[in-house]
Amino acid sequence: MAIITIEQLPAWLADGRTLAGLDLGDKTIGVAVSDRGFAFAHPRPVIMRKKFSLDAAVLLALLKKENVGAVAIGLPINMDGSEGPRAQKSRAFVRNMAQLSDLPFVFWDERLSTVAAERTLIEMDFSRAKRAGKIDSAAAAFILQGVLDRLQSLDSGDRTELGGQAEPGPTDDA
Fold first, then answer.
1. What is the 3-state secondary structure (H, E, C) of the chain?
2. pLDDT tens, residue by residue, 91-144
């Protein structure tokens, strides 16, 4: 498993692979998956957290079923740009997943993604109880959509096209 940059993502998404987005919470893992055209993020049911080995097994089965080639995970950076305990939990989760999977991860600044997701669910007239069950997957969709939008905005001269034939390779990231 590698931690990669967003610019390196296209090389991992060849051959009909999709991209997943994760919003890591204490009680749930929000999941979203891209379409094959990398235009839209689609929320999936949340994974209720129990213990890491069980959570990882459920997540990896879902990622395999969805033909995921890489995973974008929200990095909860503080508003001042610093990383606190929640960001460290996300980094630890990725380190632990590296023991179980070769899928590459890219970190994505998730500041305000949950706020945006909640506002959207309120606008859709979801009750408080229904929002509670969907907020993490909606936040994962916001994270993933941000990554997809960024991929679309990259200059084609600076990267291979999505689905191109570039060979993926591991990189180091602190």
1. CCECCHHHHHHHCCCCCEEEEEEECCCEEEEEEECCCCCCEEEEEEEECCCHHHHHHHHHHHHHHCCEEEEEEEECECCCCCECHHHHHHHHHHHHHHCCCCCCEEEEECCCHHHHHHHHHHHCCCCHHHHHHHHHHHHHHHHHHHHHHHHHHCCHHHCCCCCCCCCCCCCCCC
2. 999 999 999 999 999 999 886 556 565 666 566 565 665 555 566 788 899 899
